[in-house]
Structure formats: structure tokens, C-alpha cells
Amino acid sequence: MNEREWLKTNLAICALCGRCKKDCPTYLAEHNESRSPRGRMLLLYEAALKEELIDQALIERVYSCLVCGACEGICPSGVDVLKAILIGRAYLKGHDRKGRLLRRLMAAGTKRPILSYRLLSVFKDLLNPLLVKKGLIHRGLELDMPPLQTVDTVFSPEGRRKGRVVLFTGCSVRFLYPYLGQSFISVMNSLGFEVVLQRKEYCCGAPLLGLGMIKETERLAQRNLESFERLKADAIVSLCPTCVTVTGGIYRRLFGDALEMMVFDDFIKDLIGEKQKAGLDSSVFYHPPCHMKNYRGCDSAIGLIELSGMVLRGQSEGCCGHAGTYSLRFKERSLQMLQKRVSEFESSEADVLVTSCPGCMFQLSKMIDHPRVIHTVEIVEEMLEIKGKETD
Ligand code: SF4
Ligand code: SF4
Q1: pTM of whole model > 0.85?
Q2: Do the beta carbons of residue 291 and residue 241 sit within 8 Å?
Q3: Residues 263-288: pLDDT tens digits?
Q4: Ordered structural domains, the chain, with CATH
Q5: What is the CB neighbour count within 10 angstroms for residue 52?
Q6: Reduced to 3 states, what is the DSSP secondary structure of residue 318?
Q7: Interval between CA 360 and ligand 2 midpoint (Å)
Q8: What is the pLDDT of residue 212?
Q9: Which tens digits make up the pLDDT trace of 335-366?
Q10: What integer best gives the mean pLDDT of the chain?
Q11: Any residues with Cβ below 6 Å from ligand 1, and which?
Q12: Which is nearest to 59 in space by CA: 85, 77, 38?
């Protein structure tokens, strides 16, 4: 079934009841029906019935969805809203003039990530001022550390090995925050786990999916499935909930097969317990990433903060506005969302903001000093270091 037929068949069952609007951040921000899930379903259904209705205004409304998942599992008629948004974007993309350049850049970046990274590194002095001026990054990309893995690598613990985990680094940890990957290795090694980094890891496809590039994402999915399914390990773990959501539920819904992968917070929470309880002396504000909150809950992160001894001073009440390519395409709205999260953090008077997603870190660091924005893996690393010193 092609995209148009899929939309006609699957959106005909929408009863237009509006229940899916309840928690939609784009609807709550603007109270505009066409920026709600129900409005988007209706626009896509009509565009599938009559192609001549497609124009740039309709495309912008469909592309203004954050793909956050807050409307998941609500529909009493059984409409798969998220899948409809992704298939709808693929259906509309041929008409979407505004997204053409972004699609070309993302296709090149995901096809040749190492080459793209090297080009960015070489030309960063030219590119950085331009990107900062356009508000796309908060300060120059540093790109000082080499990417996390370019060859298969195994990091073994000292002493007896208790298990083996594979780290799915994802592009943001691999290229932007390799130090988070190093923290993960240090945490797992100190708990007796061997860590494997897989050279044949490919982008999960999230930035391509957001731009309606389902076929290109399917190619990446096939490569990741071939590459990771043959590995023998106790678990595949990622520091990025978006990678886990895409390679899990979204691969399954679009392509029929998925990777069994765990988010770091959930994996580590099962491994460490009261005996690792530490007395870290600071206060923290937690930003729950949409792909944690809406797909798997944030109990593990909160539990980790409690175990660390840090004082929890509050939590964000919404999306940071990153949402992959949303922050590039809807810059103003994205910055408005970010400003709200920053105000919440500042009012909490917490020392640091912690989140479980490198994408959220990237967005939040546009307005908060980078050292004050940390990942949950950094908290666990610090807890284990303290416990290590106590037992020395
Ligand atoms: S995925 Fe998020 S932004 Fe998109 S329609 Fe659903 S709730 Fe709204
Ligand atoms: S998608 Fe489902 S919940 Fe949303 S308006 Fe249609 S029937 Fe109602």
C-alpha cells in the first residue's frame, strides 16, 4: 500500500473526538486546531483524498508536530497518530520546498557521518559564527574530542567479568558528547561489565524520519538490525531515549522488526541499589525528555537522583523544543519552548539541570551554561567514584 492509500484507509476511522489533543504541546502552546493531532489527522486525510489541497501551509502544520508521543495510545478509534504523521510527511515531502536543503544535508550526514564530521571540524572556524548568529547553536561547536568509535572496540573491567553490554552510541554521543560514552564505559567497567562499541553502527534514522524520509530510514534500520542482532551481549544500551524509541517501537511499526535496546536510566537502575547510595552535595532540576516521559516514564531517573543524594528541586513541564529537525525548521517556536524550560530551571534555583537525552542537552545548552547541563550517566559516574574512594 502506498503512503496515500495508507492515509486514506487508516485515517477514515478518525471520529474527530479530539481526545488526542489533551496533552499535545503544540496545541497547548497555540490553541490552534490545525496544530493539534486531530487537526493534523484531518488535514492529512483530506490531502490524501484530494492531492490538489496540498500547499506549503498544510505541510507546515503537519511538520510542526514534535513527534513527541504525548498523543500515543489515547485514540479510542485506534488511529496510530504518530505513524500517520510519519507516513503523512513522506506523502507530502515531494511538495515541501522548504525542507529540500535540510533533506539533502541530513541524507549526506547520515550516509557519510565520519566524512561530514571531518568536514565540520576542518571548517568549524568558518561555520561556527554563522550557526551561532542564526541561533542554531549557543556557541561554537567544539568537536575537540575524536568521535567515540571508528573501529570495533572492547573495554574490559578489571577483575572478574560479570556481563557484557553493547553501547549504541547514537550520533549525538558519538560526535558531540563522546565524553558521555566514556562515562558510560567507566560506570559499566566499575560494575564489572565489559563494554563493546560497534564500528558498524548507523544513525537510528530519527532526523530522516522527521523529514519524511522513510525509505532512507529503512535502509539504516536494515543495517543496524543486521549489525546488532549478531552480537552476543546481555543488553544493548543507549544514552539517548530517541535512539531507543526509533530503533524499537518505530522500526517495528514501520518496518516490522526492531532492536531490543534499553535506555541507560532503566538499565542502570536495575543494577545499582541502596549500597551505591551516595551523598552528592548539590541540588538538581530534572528535564524529562519527551521520549522518556511519553514512552517509558521517568521513574528510573528520579530514582537515580534520589540514590545520588542530590536534592531534586523540580522538573520541566514540557518539551525543550529540540525535537530533532524541529529546532531548525521552527526556530522561533523552538526557542520559545526552550525559554520556558530555562525559566523553570532558574526559578528552581537548582545548581545543575540533569536530563537523560543528549539532544535535550544540546538544546538546553543554548541558554544555560554547558557545565550546568548534565546527563544522568554523569551523576552515576560520580556516585560510583565516591563509593570507590570510600572502599579504597
Ligand atoms: S506527537 Fe506530540 S506534537 Fe505531535 S501531534 Fe502528538 S502530541 Fe502533538
Ligand atoms: S485520532 Fe483518535 S483521539 Fe484523535 S480525534 Fe481522531 S478518533 Fe479522536
Answers
A1: yes
A2: yes
A3: 999 999 988 877 777 878 899 999 99
A4: 3-95 (1.10.1060.10), 272-391 (3.40.50)
A5: 6
A6: coil
A7: 29
A8: 95
A9: 999 999 999 999 999 999 999 999 999 999 98
A10: 90
A11: 24-26, 37, 40, 65-71, 81-82
A12: 85
Q: Which protein residue's CA is at the shortest distance from atom 4 of ligand 2?
A: 20
Closest alpha carbon to 236 in 206, 198, 271: 198
Question: Of 166, 204, 220, which Cα lies nearest the Cα of 188?
Answer: 166
Distance CA 137, CA 131 (A): 6
The confidence score (pLDDT) of residue 360 equals 96
Task: List all residues whose CB is within 6 A of at least one atom of ligand 2.
Answer: 14-20, 37-38, 41, 74-75, 77, 79, 81
Best mutation site among 7, 10, 20 for ligand 2 pocket (most ligand atoms within 8 Å of CB): 20
Residue 269 CA to residue 199 CA, distance in Å, equals 27
Instruction: Judge whether 206 and 170 are in contact, CB under 8 Å.
Output: no
pLDDT at 387 over 70: no
Lookup result for grid cell 577483575: 159
- Nearest-10 Cα torsion for 154, 159, 162, 166: -10
In DSSP terms, 322 is beta-bridged to none
The answer to whether the Cα torsion of 71, 72, 78, 83 is positive or negative is positive
User: Residue 208 and residue 334: Cα distance in Å, rounded?
Assistant: 19
CB-CB contact of 63 with 45 (8 Å): no
Tell the residue nearest (CA) to atom 1 of ligand 1. 67
* Confidence category of residue 141, pLDDT binned at 50, 70, 90: low
Task: For residues 117 and 41, give the distance between their C-alpha atoms in angstroms, rounded to a whole number.
Answer: 37
